[in-house]
Amino acid sequence: MERAEARAPDGRSPRRAPRLFALSLFVYLFLYAPIFVLAAFSFNRGRLTAAWEGFTFDWYLKLLHNAHVLGALRNSLLVALVTTTVATLFGTAAALALERARLRRAALLDGLVTLPMVVPEIVLASSLLLLFAGVGLRLGFATVILAHVAFTVSYAVVVVRARLQGFDASLEEAAMDLGAGPLRTFVHVTLPLIAPGIVAAALMVFALSIDDYVVTSFVAGVGATTLPVQIYSMVKSGITPEINAVSTLLLTATSLLLVGAWRLERGRGRAALLPAGLGLALLALPFVAAPRASSGGRELNVYIWSNYIAPETVRRFEERHGVRVNLDLYDTNEALLAKVQAGNAPYDVLCPSSYIVEILLAQNLLQPLDHSALPHLANLDARFLDRPYDRGNRYSAPYVWGTCGIGYLKSRVGRVDSWSALWDARFAGRVLMLDDARETLGAALKRLGLSLNTRDEQALRRAQRLLVEQKPLVRTYDSSNYHDVLASGDVWLAQGWNGQFAKAMERHPDLAYVLPKEGASLFIDSLVVPRGAPHPELAHAFIDFTLEAETAAEICRTTGYSTPNRAALALLPAALRANRAIFPSQEELGRLELMEDLRDVTALYDRLWTEVKSRR
Ligand code: N2P
């Protein structure tokens, strides 16, 4: 040690210094460049993230009016604060116990404390979900906080223990010798000495909690959406500078708090005041600025496909009923099914496709609809009522219908009329497929001239081989954003559901949509109320609201998906009614096939599809 120090001024280190300096500069640049870029682009006028179009504060102003982002930030802060308090308290107590008490099996206990730090997060997440479902705990704030405490407390123990290990026990003995009792000694000697460790632990827990995505996405119910979960769902419909703005704010606030804590640790209490105060003020912003719907506490939890309802439709319902609607989004029927089967997500309204209605019914997961509360059912076209999957519509009210075909860029690929275009080697790397077992295998089956409800294993394996063969051409599998990816020109052909293509076509005249000549899938998606829904009356009010002619027309106009509502048709602009991407011709309708529940064969579809995706 001494030798090393003595060597320092001998002329070797100054020569090395510039190189070392450059190296460290590079490392820091590597670490911080993404953050600088993010902060810079939060002031970018353009909506696209990649090109600079001039300076603006607009995204920050927009943020102040975005109830969803601010609400999520509020939730994140609440969760992080409670988690920090609880985990730091428990962690400190456990650290003291492990360090001080002469415990039997100390080594085992040591190991057990650190285990949650090394267990893969996804394992922790699913086991927590299972546990909560097992004990019948509703997903919400409580489950998020419990989960966060569970995975952060180990970190708190480790950090506080590190401080305790360098602790001079004679100080405590001296206090006791001078007559202080154990409590007094703890408060006046031990606590002040380990305080920096406790603060460090608290900061660590706070940081871990506030940025957790994986665990939270498993155990958060509706209404407990945290910022990372919200950002992820926004990313699905394109990153906006608003996200950059909220991240920059969060970053600035936490950095200020860190500077405060650092100064405090060095005994510069006064100098800590300004940064800590500013940091806290920034964090308080969402609590004062957040626009809240005057809901009087009444809420409705709707779990629906992404791109399936416009904010203005939701807002009208909120205003009319003085409630707050929590929207949670999914992109596959299977995701919906998994969430509902887990049994503890407090949803009031779901929007499954017809074949999923069959499954939910078979498993007794839906409650009957009270038709007397749904007077606007009368608006529906009889063609969509009384279908085999739900005779008499006792459980489901059709919401929208549509098709799955191919969207493409005319200037790039010319005219398309067959599924085989998605297998054309000329378009290698320019093809997008849905991330959906039934739809992808369905397209391959159609290409083979087979039914997309095929139950025959040999036929299904042939379809699987086609998808494997196609894989090198596929740029990405995506069920949420496919229309945007196509419109951006990143891909030239995309399998997808019609509505989103129809909307994109309004802005991009080069885009076209086709129902291939071999046939395609038809879907009817309905609103249903799951068993155990916390607000069944409001759920009925919502369903009936969507059945009103004006609302149904608005949904059709804003989403591009077709309406089963006869009364709404009259309210639609003529151009929209003539749009074949939205309302197919008789001849095209004749080529469509409705997906059915395949019972035990479903598992085979899922397995074959998983194999396709995991193939390299
Ligand atoms: C909306 C997806 C359409 C639903 N993003 C297909 N059933």
Describe this structure in words.
- Helix 2 (12-41) packs across helix 12 (241-265), helix 3 packs across helix 12 and helix 4 (67-100) runs antiparallel to helix 9 (182-210).
- The protein has 616 residues and is of the alpha/beta class.
- The chain is built from 27 helices and ten strands.
- The strands form two sheets. Strands 4, 5, 6, 7, 8, 9 and 10 form a seven-stranded mixed β-sheet that branches.
- The chain has helices at residues 2-7, 12-41, 58-64, 67-100, 106-118, 121-134, 141-165, 169-177, 182-210, 214-219, 227-235, 241-265, 269-289, 311-321, 333-342, 354-362, 410-413, 437-447, 457-470, 482-487, 498-507, 536-547, 549-559, 566-569, 574-577, 586-589, 602-614; strands at 299-305, 324-330, 349-350, 397-409, 431-433, 474-477, 493-497, 511-514, 520-527, 592-594.
- Pentane-1,5-diamine is lined by residues 305-308, 353, 497, 523, 525.
List the main descriptive attributes of the protein structure presented here.
616 residues, alpha/beta, three-stranded parallel sheet, 10 strands, elongated, disordered N terminus, binds pentane-1,5-diamine
